Amino acid sequence: MPELVTRERSLSSEHAGSELGTSIDGSRPNSRKDFEIALICALRVEFDAVEALFDEYYEPEHDFSFGKAPGDPNAYTTGRVCGHDVVLAFMPGMGKVSSANVAAGFRASFPDIELGIVVGICGGVPLGRDDEKEVLLGDVVISTALVQFDLGRQYVNKAVRKDTLQDNLGRPNLEIRAFLAKLSGSRGRTMLRGKTSFYLEELCEKDGFHKSSYPGADNDKLYRPTYRHKHQDPDASCICANCHGPHDDVCAAALEASCEELGCHDSELVNRARIETVKLATQDRYPFYGAGSGETQKPAIHFGVVVSGDSVMKSGYHRDDIASREKAIAFEMEGAGVWDTFPTVVIKSVCDYADSHKNKKWQRYAAATAAACMKAFLGEWRQAR
């Protein structure tokens, strides 16, 4: 890995621009038509991380602006990332409708966008596709396809997704499929993982991002899919005492309480080989992982189907059911709204396991990791000239 790190540091220096936005070569795009890459974030924590990794900013002091099309409500940040002219937009809300509106604004103001990247945080499927790879908090998911899980029919006993040619989202275009196939290979994945780790460390050293470092393996907890987030005391004076299955109700207070407050037992945690390996690193047995509490753990990169919808997935039982049917590795809420507007890739980092025990402890780190992977991704992307 020393050669890779050396190359990354050289690459970082090559693309590093002035914090004030002065162009490295004295040039910037002539018009909005020269921008070909759109970056979209739904949460402030996501937007801040992506914006912080720009190599330069084209509109630093408001003395110059590319403007936007009449009627476009979006607010943009323009700049350069790894040699690419990019434009970043912060969504006013979460979900498909909001992302679709933002994408429409992009299309009006920046008509030659050839690649859209939805960057941020997501809920992960712990065992990944076909149980091949354990997914840990902070790992990055890159979409090879997108499925709308909340477009369908609700019956008395179950929901059935509409699965027709007209209702399904199309495949990524040939250029994106070829590029993802290259990146997902052994060499490409190793390179992408190394660069992501490098940019993540670089980001965590910036002012305002010191709290975005790795929260520690001991805080990466995965409970059995059917183990509910409720008051665990069997004598609890609320409906939680009668909750014994995946469809039973829990009290409103339990929905907002932490696992510590509810007494969720560690005896219900799922044993995972990879997280145990990472924990050993905190005992200095494997120092090359760099995974001690508060340090940066090198996240893995996973490629696969991502499920998109307006509902926040907070059920391990339903997570595994949908993931099994769709062969999905993650859940998110914005990709489907952008997908049909321009060629799109979702790059998101796992901040929870899409179950009832989810919390916000990992959001800062996950947002930083996704932003770092986005930059590593663009470092390999080649545009037709």
TrEMBL record:
Biased composition (Polar residues): 20-29
Amino acid composition bias (Basic and acidic residues), ranges on this chain: 1-12
Record-given protein name: Purine and uridine phosphorylase
SUPFAM superfamilies: Purine and uridine phosphorylases (SSF53167)
GO molecular function terms noted in the UniProt entry: catalytic activity
Record InterPro entries: NLR-like, Nucleoside_phosphorylase_d, Nucleoside_phosphorylase_sf
Annotated stretches, region: Disordered: 1-29
Any GO BP: nucleoside metabolic process
Domain (Nucleoside phosphorylase) ranges: 37-158
